[in-house]
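Review form for a predicted model. The reviewer records the input and the model, then writes brief findings.
Reviewer: anonymous (R2)
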Amino acid sequence: MFQVDTSIVPDTSQNAFFLDSLVLRILGQNPGKMTLQGTNTYLVGMGKSRILIDCSDGNASYIKLLARVCQKHGVEHISDLLLTHGHLDHMGGIMHIRKLFPGIRIWKYRVNMKSEQSMRLGVRDLSLMKSFSVGTNAILTPLHASGHSMDHVCFQLDVNCSLQDNKRRLLFTGDCILGTGSTSFTSLQLLLATLKKLKALKSDTMFPGHGPVIVNTKCKINEYIEHRVQREQDILVIMGRSKVPIGIDKITSILYQNVTFLVRMAAKRSVLQHLMKLQEDGVVKVKVQQRTWYFWRPRNLFDLIDSTSNGS
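Model under review:
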């Protein structure tokens, strides 16, 4: 996991801040070791009616802040609440938002429309919406981006102004890509596929679910991919040095030293996902009863060298 540089994490005193003429970031008032300065929520659009992306964890301070910001900037109505994924720090405020803005439409990907919770919260299936209009010159498009979670979605904002110089593509990345540090994930294979998909979008700016704005988007995505590749190599080196099958706890303790309990737990999940990917690749196998992992080499390691070579 990357070391967090607190000097580039936005100060929590910047509770509400315009990042773009169409994007107002409102901090979720839930700072912590896993949420950095707190969840970034975004008020998108101009005028009296706007769209909100994510709604923090439901704490009273955020709801009050959102109400004050809307009043200050003349926002009378939030038409839609778009959720990047189903983690509490991003969607815990649903009921409070609904009370604050009656009639608001709430959207989430992979919703069981028949479940009691979905009906009670009034959540709609985001897969039914191809895009959302933002004023007269911008379109907000949901993009399925699994990896951090299976239900994760990013939102692409294409601004098409009459002036060529003002055309821009903005990307709300949720927890797929953070402003600083690395993200947790439920599937490394899917996360890597998502990163490649987001890289192809060539967005000008990325607005993450936590941490500061990302300006050098290509560099950040490459950093994420390279970090995962390097972590995989680190795990293989550790396993290669072990004369016996090795457990996740041992691998984690070697890779992540002097970290907090919460970070270590997240790191264990990361190591497990790396091992699962390596298992899918046919590189390692698991002893289920012992919960240990070992190299699987169905062919001689040296077969990687051209067998027709005469050694010259």
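Findings: The radius of gyration is 22 Å.
Further findings: The first strand starts at residue 16 and ends at 20.
Recommendation: see findings above.
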